[in-house]
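Example 3.2
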Amino acid sequence: MKFNQARLRQLHRALVPVMILPILLTLTTGMLFQLAVASDRANDFLWLLELHRGKFGQINLDLVYPFLNALGLLTLLISGILMWLQSPTSKRKQI
């Protein structure tokens, strides 16, 4: 099945800058909290867990933040794979 290459690239290019901050935030806060748990200091770093789950002070995105992260990542993954599959095969073999 052939997809409109230009629209696919536009979607991918528009979504990357929007998704980079939440993905990096989720990644770093999750990793740092796990380090705190490993050093038996998890109670001192519960604020990291709140950020990881989507609670930003007065703004509580606890219910939708994981779904938005997952939907954005899934869209980037699918659009990236589709662009890769539509690229010429000679280009893919070089990599």
